[in-house]
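Listing S7. Sequence submitted for prediction.
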Amino acid sequence: MDMTVRVCEVVVKQLPETLTGNEGKRFFRELGNQLNKIDRASIVLDCSKVRQMDKSAIYLLLCCLEEAMKRNGDVKLAGIPSGARAVLELTGAARLFESFETNAEAIISFQRVPVHSVSEIGVPGSSIMASESAV
């Protein structure tokens, strides 16, 4: 049995300090151009420079997530300052994104193989792992 494991390409984008309407549109357009070149949209948004998380910024995050999901992908956030994190939690948007302290941690999280995927490819002992994870 020939088994090919694909490592996904992860796009890391730095969010600007502030996101006005025009900056957000430009950011989203650039991201879209990058996503058109890859099969599965695995995106890390580096939030470390974000000074204000307002409705424009949250809307941009949601648009990025929607675009990634259209491409069978996901968006993860990294380096979120405490003030921005509080706004994400207050609005409920934090529940939609996995967040990490660093870009490296977020990138590595895309490389992990979920337990159910391991059992689907027939790795010995994987059925035990899958049943234990359901507990």
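Caption to Listing S7: primary sequence and predicted structure tokens for the chain studied. Residues 10-133 form a domain with the Transcription Regulator spoIIAA fold (CATH 3.30.750.24). Helices lie at 21-35, 55-70, 82-91, 103-111, 115-120, 126-133.
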